[in-house]
Amino acid sequence: xxxxxxxxxxxxxxxxxxxxxxxxxxxxxxxxxxxxxxxxxxxxxxxxxxxxxxxxxxxxxxxxxxxxxxxxxxxxxxxxxxxxxxxxxxxxxxxxxxxxxxxxxxxxxxxxxxxxxxxxxxxxxxxxxxxxxxxxxxxxxxxxxxxxxxxxxxxxxxxxxxxxxxxxxxxxxxxxxxxxxxxxxxxxxxxxxxxxxxxxxxxxxxxxxxxxxxxxxxxxxxxxxxxxxxxxxxxxxxxxxxxx
Length: 244
Known about the structure:
Blueprint (H helix, E strand, L loop, with lengths): L3 E6 L14 E2 L2 E2 H11 L6 E5 L2 H9 L3 E4 L7 H9 L6 E4 L9 H13 L5 E7 L12 E4 L5 E5 L15 E10 H7 L6 H6 L3 H6 L5 E4 L10 H12 L5
Parallel strand pairs: 1-4, 1-6, 4-5, 7-11
Antiparallel strand pairs: 2-3, 6-10, 7-10, 8-9, 8-10
């Protein structure tokens, strides 16, 4: 089986919530919750936090996680992963966002499995049915797929347009990615593309450069953390979980 590593991009600089990777959630920094979920996915023992910040490296050291320092000037987490990939032997890299403390380990596995099973698959991601409440929300990204399961397009609009009744639920994109090493390294060399710029969705850069993205059904996180209020919501969810 191909070698695999999970890379968690995390940085202290955030417009709405500076320092959020280290916000305390039930006695653990947020990034630790993400690392532990990645471990439970059981696709690899190699979990790496990619960060430009010494504070995050020190926190990872304190709970026994591997961290690699990256440049400060990356435009995206994908660029940060591309830099880390230069020092790794892993053939497949899985991008799990550092602000997803409630990420589902089985969804991480679902994202990576097409690449682990089929050497012809170059990139993967995941979807879940979109709720009616999220249909018109541009922050909720939608994806349409081919009969083979590859993404045809991602949009902030509720695609497909229902000129006729939709035969199936609209698919909500979940922002977890798996890439072959050479694909994510190529991404960092490509200029931003027209559809990427129009939608503000970097995954379109892969598609505009001819990379097929195999989509698998997964489960979305109840909440990602972009604000202190969302951190409070995560705490309430964690407090309600059974302790066993």
